[in-house]
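A reminder before we start the practical. When you read a complex entry, don't treat the lines as separate problems. The point of joint prediction is that each chain is placed relative to the others, so the output describes one connected object in space. Small molecules and nucleic acid strands, if listed, are placed in the same frame. In the example below there are two entries. Take a minute to note the order of the lines before looking further.
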Amino acid sequence: MSAGILDGRAVAAGITERSIERVGELARTGGQRRLHIVTATTDPSSESYVRALTRYGTRIGVRVTVERLDEGAPAETIRRALASASADPSVHGVMLQTPLPAGVSLQQVATAIAVDKDVDGANPLSLGTWMSGGAGFAPATAAAVIELLDHHGVELAGARVTVVGRSPVVGKPLLHLFLNRDATVTVAHSKTKNLAAATRGASILVAAAGSPGLVTGEHVGDGAVVVDVGTNYDAFGRLSGDVDAGSVAPRAAALSPVPGGVGAITTALLFRNTITGLAARRPTEPAAQTTTEPAPVPVPH
Amino acid sequence: MSAGILDGRAVAAGITERSIERVGELARTGGQRRLHIVTATTDPSSESYVRALTRYGTRIGVRVTVERLDEGAPAETIRRALASASADPSVHGVMLQTPLPAGVSLQQVATAIAVDKDVDGANPLSLGTWMSGGAGFAPATAAAVIELLDHHGVELAGARVTVVGRSPVVGKPLLHLFLNRDATVTVAHSKTKNLAAATRGASILVAAAGSPGLVTGEHVGDGAVVVDVGTNYDAFGRLSGDVDAGSVAPRAAALSPVPGGVGAITTALLFRNTITGLAARRPTEPAAQTTTEPAPVPVPH
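Here is the predicted structure of the whole assembly.
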């Protein structure tokens, strides 16, 4: 067996196409959507991400504004910027870049982002709200995993899912997105004593530990669908995931590549959230039908 | 093998003893703690719970005030009562009774409870905050499970835990309390296809599905520690749990009874939260050493 590819670029292309349509509809009534990014860092990967977001916005017709604060900005200054953007009726999405200045925690400042404009689900109130069945945005990377599986026809209800990793931005929200879709979910992490025992029974295995090559063939049951959320850069700036594709591919039914898998979808989701808003769709709902309909990947139960 | 008893009353007695001491210390400096309960229901089990809370408060020296709203009170009236109690410096804990009036959701109103007075963790912001590593109270029933296991010396780090049930007040918060203590956690529920497969490998099994007798011997691995969070009333008003003790006891290393297990601890925790406040202790930290020190229950890994 050799694994099928869970292509994220095709998913992103479908979302982008629908976003461009919607932006066109809004333009006819004079409305333009706007994403406001607050940043207090000159970290190169953050800078490069902000440039990518700006390019994507230009491409689909969403205005992107960037508010640069001092790298030593205190929490109160960051909160004020987020609250002011949240209160501005011309702003539809508010994002805060990390890393934050020394001594400032995301916790401390993200509550200043209004829940209905919190397009990357950074406010703990967003998390607590959608987890409890209310309307709120999930972090875009976690939502991208679900989007990728839905697009490729992987059945989530009743699936046995193992998520490796318990970060507040990926692993923890992701486990709830799977629970909300009626999967049976296991969360494993760096303190799990026997990782293979926690992963080998999974019909869907998600690697989100931030540890290059952590998941190898021995961790994967025959015919499992494997999603790689890792974005690890080596000393030469090369990107790799958490999955050792060489040993995993012969066992898995399907595998998402890095790059070109989950990461490719994240930006498209951030902008979709900015365009459609919270009222239109809850993150826990199944994704809308995609325009290109690939063959379903078989998932063992 | 016959299961040891995970006695909740002894745990509650230890917490109560320390709460009485702390209330005495506060009294010497003229301070009195106060729990304010907002209720808009005449549901008999809610009424009986409010009476039990009032009695417990009287016993340990914490003032309990009850604000009765009309059974048809709109969301805005309930929010105003919660916000007003939250703003009152003489109030240290704010609780909202359920069921709520028809058409009012807990989501809708619980955000009006200040996080630092949200002693039963009802505000989604509390959940999102402590889940992400910040300071907030967990729902008392979920916290009681951890308290019970800690008291009986059950090791959580590295344990394989299965929680059966995914309610926002027990199953979901509980899975995060276990994750924060380095357990590997699986969540099973009504849509899990093979429940026994998800539970039999667990070293700690928590039944929180609200389904009488759901967990039987076939679901339990030899030597597992089993915690029963079920509180099911039959037509005669008799209380039973989610665990079929007759078939489970011969296999389990230890089992919590219903009544006298988790339920016995919940009230004591609500008042401890009211007395110590949020600054003193995060719910994710291990519980303080208990006064009575029972023999540890062996847990297989």
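Discuss with your neighbour: The interface with chain A takes residues 105-107, 111, 123-129, 131-134, 157-158, 160, 166, 168, 172, 175-176, 179, 182, 184-189, 191-193, 197-198, 201, 301 of chain B (CB under 8 Å). What might explain this?
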